[in-house]
């Protein structure tokens, strides 16, 4: 200790020369003990400084980061702020294009300034977006989360997340703002592309795997948006949420509960929205009562960007920024992001006036400091130099430029694998695959028609760097190789002539280009219609944050173009590069084939081309239903009986292709269902098994999906809901015996009294290839009393598989 000044008592501002050492540096102590020791030595202003971030951008010249001038906030004075410390640095790499190595140098120099300015030498925690890859210039652009859901392959998504995490950590980033656990309730919502799907079990399992992968790399994962954001009325961004407590408990919350219980996640982000009049940022029963007291979450709750200020400006539940800060801090929000606003001077004034208990500040700061201790940021030997600069610590920016690659061959191979497993074959009349043994059978002339035929960024989601940030820097190269669908098809079908026309702008109303496109179609052996979305932000795209749709008709005149192509005499294969499902009109029944890819990332067009040729067997399944009619929203497969087609309404929400649907290039038989016991007590379990055999001529993937149907319950239930699944890759003639142990807990739901219960009575377990394709049904009975369950209940069925030795 270089000085013995009681700043906590005097309230005097700290000075960098008063550098203190203490137990918080002792790595043999638990993080909690280190945090407590540091907390006891801090002034109130030093404490509140740990609760804010500053939005910055790394310097492409290697200098310190500069505060980002956002139109929603006034500039931050770092000279005034940093002597007290700083909690977080917001998106140093994801704010403007910067060479990764130079950006790492800029961040390191900034951390040196931060640690040198505050008397404890505490660095800031740096966070970035990582929804579909590290959102920085030159980093791999992976498929969006909706594609993760389409894989029905959590382990693969975990590999993807671990790769993203390693890249983040390599340049000095500590926290990633992903995954999104919002369950799709209305596909018109612009952020559907950011979600994993419309089923809470699928969302929970895939998101939990992502968190485990990111955390395995030493990066703090962030669950968002807690909770209910995706259930906004009419699918409008930030619109009020009108769902009841039971829908919230049984549909919205289970993925978060699963991730908190099973993944080791260390951060949660509150949602922007209000539910029944209570904004999430001020919802103490949600952020503290449920998340912490019931589920046992011990990490930090961070604000969605500007979300605390929105309590005043948008929600109107706070009359001042000080009141907003008090409400959020009291509810359980620990860190204000993206930059200091309500937790700055407004919070200081509220504390001085006695409107906010200081104990609330201590509670939040302790959580922040525990996390910094876990990350090594309180270690005496902590260095601001990230791993990528360890061997070139003294190199200047020009020597470093180009030395760090965040889009490696290994990353691209992983991106390609995820994209391939996520492609969903919705329809096929036998036209696909186009050439199982090229060039035999390959079309001589392919007309590639549509606005996504020759657009490099058509594979990218809203939170990919080239879309999210790159659009503001048109003179900067993309930083990635993004083969267009035309280029991918040319490489996949070298013996075919490929002619191309856009037909129309993606969201334009002009049909003048139809003539050229139809002429190409008439003269071709096959038409590939390249349709879908353009990702963007707040109206600059047809999909993405703030890009909500009035209905689910293809944007612009794409449906008219598609119908005109169907009227030609040429077979039409529809390929969709999109961020949400769209109604396809006649094409759902008349197209030769329909291939769906949800913004499949930088390797996406190659994945689509390889599925079209048959080099890769399609194995994706729909994570969201594809509507038959564009106006049949909101509608998901998780509907009660009255939510399905009926004689009392002429509006039919029956999908064209249901949740879980996906075709293959082979065939499977399901047989020999055996139920070991048809009755079990409400605290018991059922065991059943069946055989799945590949009866086709090539390798393929079947996804066994287990749905629960409760014929009679004390409250209205969905007709069916997914409770488990298993992905099986089978060679021709290969058979697998699948044994499933299903605990009665999976039949639980929120009863009339607001508690989760398991009721006695009849059940059906429907084993299907999708929600609309049931193959086997087990009729079972639960016996005994109604049983109340809680957050310790079992969340998964057990699965065992055995390859049958007697397969022909």
Q: Please, could you describe this protein's structure?
A:
By secondary structure, this protein is of the alpha/beta class. The protein has 23 helices and 30 strands. It has an eight-stranded mixed β-sheet with strand order 2-1-3-4-5-6-7-10. A six-stranded mixed β-sheet has the order 11-16-15-14-12-13, sandwiched between helices. Strands 20-28-27-22-23 form a five-stranded mixed β-sheet. β3, α5 and β4 (125-128) form a beta-alpha-beta unit. It is globular. The model is unreliable at 1-17 (pLDDT under 50).
Quick summary of this structure?
The protein is an alpha/beta fold.
Which helices and strands appear, and what pairs or packs with what?
Elements: H1 7-10, H2 31-41, H3 44-49, E1 53-57, E2 66-67, H4 78-81, E3 88-90, H5 100-117, E4 125-128, H6 145-151, H7 154-170, E5 175-176, H8 200-216, E6 220-226, H9 245-252, H10 254-262, E7 267-270, E8 274-275, E9 278-279, H11 284-294, E10 300-302, H12 310-313, H13 321-331, H14 345-352, H15 358-374, H16 397-400, H17 409-422, E11 424-428, E12 445-449, H18 465-468, H19 485-492, E13 497-501, H20 514-522, E14 526-532, H21 558-566, E15 572-578, H22 587-590, E16 593-598, H23 604-613, E17 626-627, E18 655-657, E19 668-675, E20 679-681, E21 685-694, E22 700-709, E23 721-730, E24 735-743, E25 749-750, E26 756-758, E27 761-770, E28 773-783, E29 787-788, E30 798-803
Helix pairs in contact: 2-15, 6-17, 7-8, 7-17, 8-10, 13-14, 17-23, 19-23
């Amino acid at each position: 200790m270089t000085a013995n000044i009681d700043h906590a008592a005097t309230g005097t501002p700290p000075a960098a020369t008063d550098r203190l050492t203490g137990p918080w540096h002792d790595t043999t102590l638990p993080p909690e003990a280190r945090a407590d020791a540091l907390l006891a030595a801090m002034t109130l202003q030093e404490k509140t400084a740990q609760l804010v971030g500053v939005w910055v951008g790394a310097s492409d010249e290697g200098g310190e980061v500069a505060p980002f001038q956002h139109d929603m906030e006034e500039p931050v004075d770092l000279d005034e702020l940093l002597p007290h410390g700083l909690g977080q640095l917001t998106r140093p790499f994801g704010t403007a294009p910067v060479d990764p190595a130079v950006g790492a140098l800029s961040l390191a120099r900034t951390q040196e300034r931060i640690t040198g300015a505050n008397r404890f030498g505490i660095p800031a925690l740096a966070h970035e977006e990582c929804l579909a890859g590290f959102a920085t210039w030159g980093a791999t652009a992976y498929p969006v989360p909706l594609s993760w859901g389409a894989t029905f392959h959590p382990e693969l998504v975990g590999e993807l997340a671990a790769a993203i995490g390693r890249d983040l950590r390599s340049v000095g980033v500590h926290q990633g703002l992903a995954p999104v656990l919002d369950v799709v309730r209305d596909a018109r919502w612009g952020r559907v592309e950011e979600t994993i799907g419309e089923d809470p079990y699928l969302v929970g399992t895939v998101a939990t795997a992502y968190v485990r992968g990111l955390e395995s790399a030493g990066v703090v994962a962030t669950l968002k948006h807690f909770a209910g954001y995706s259930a906004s009325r009419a699918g409008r961004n930030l619109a009020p949420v009108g769902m009841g407590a039971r829908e919230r408990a049984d549909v919205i919350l289970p993925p978060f509960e699963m991730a908190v219980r099973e993944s080791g996640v260390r951060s949660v982000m509150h949602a922007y929205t209000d539910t029944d009049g209570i904004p999430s940022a001020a919802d103490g029963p949600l952020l503290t009562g449920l998340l912490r007291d019931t589920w046992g979450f011990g990490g930090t709750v961070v604000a969605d960007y500007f979300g605390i200020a929105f309590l005043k400006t948008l929600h109107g539940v706070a009359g001042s920024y000080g009141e907003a800060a008090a409400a959020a801090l009291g509810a359980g929000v620990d860190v204000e992001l993206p930059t200091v606003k309500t937790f700055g001077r407004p919070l200081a004034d509220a504390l001085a006036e006695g409107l906010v208990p200081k104990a609330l500040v201590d509670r939040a700061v302790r959580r922040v400091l525990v996390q910094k201790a876990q990350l090594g940021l309180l270690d005496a030997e902590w260095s601001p130099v990230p791993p990528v600069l360890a061997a070139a610590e003294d190199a200047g920016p020009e020597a470093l430029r180009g030395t760090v690659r965040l889009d490696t061959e290994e990353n691209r191979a992983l991106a390609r694998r995820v994209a391939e497993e996520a492609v969903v074959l919705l329809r096929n009349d036998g036209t696909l695959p186009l050439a199982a043994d090229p060039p035999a059978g390959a079309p001589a002339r392919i007309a590639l028609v549509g606005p996504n035929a020759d657009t490099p960024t058509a594979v990218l989601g809203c939170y990919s760097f080239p879309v999210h940030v790159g659009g503001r820097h048109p003179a900067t190269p993309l930083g990635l190789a993004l083969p267009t669908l035309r280029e991918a098809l040319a490489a996949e079908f070298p013996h075919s002539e490929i002619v191309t026309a856009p037909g129309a702008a993606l969201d334009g109303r002009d049909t003048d280009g139809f003539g050229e496109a139809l002429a190409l179609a008439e003269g071709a052996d096959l038409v590939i219609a390249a349709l879908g979305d353009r990702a963007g932000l707040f109206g600059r795209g047809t999909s993405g944050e703030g890009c909500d749709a009035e209905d689910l008709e293809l944007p612009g005149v794409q449906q008219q173009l598609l119908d005109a192509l169907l009227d030609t005499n040429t077979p039409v294969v529809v390929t969709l590069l999109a961020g949400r499902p769209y109604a396809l009109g006649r094409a759902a029944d008349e197209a030769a084939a329909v291939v769906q890819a949800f913004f499949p990332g930088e390797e996406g067009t190659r994945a689509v081309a390889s599925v079209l040729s048959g080099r890769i067997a399609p194995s994706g399944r729909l994570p969201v239903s594809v509507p038959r009619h564009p106006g049949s929203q909101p509608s998901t497969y998780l509907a009660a009986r009255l939510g399905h087609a009926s004689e009392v309404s002429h509006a039919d929400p029956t999908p064209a292709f249901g949740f879980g649907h996906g075709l293959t290039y082979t065939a499977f038989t399901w047989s020999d269902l055996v139920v070991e016991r048809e009755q079990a007590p409400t605290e018991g379990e059922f065991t059943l098994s069946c055989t799945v055999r590949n009866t086709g001529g090539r390798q393929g993937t079947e996804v066994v999906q287990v749905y629960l149907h409760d014929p009679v319950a004390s409250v209205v239930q969905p007709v069916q809901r997914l409770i488990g699944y298993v992905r099986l890759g089978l060679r021709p003639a290969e058979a697998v015996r699948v044994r499933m142990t299903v605990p009665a807990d999976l039949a639980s739901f929120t009863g009339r009294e607001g508690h989760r219960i398991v009721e006695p009575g009849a059940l059906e377990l429907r084993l299907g290839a999708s929600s609309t394709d049931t193959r086997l049904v087990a009729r079972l009975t639960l016996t005994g009393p109604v049983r109340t369950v809680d957050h310790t209940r079992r969340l998964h069925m057990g699965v065992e598989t055995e390859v049958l030795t007697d397969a022909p």
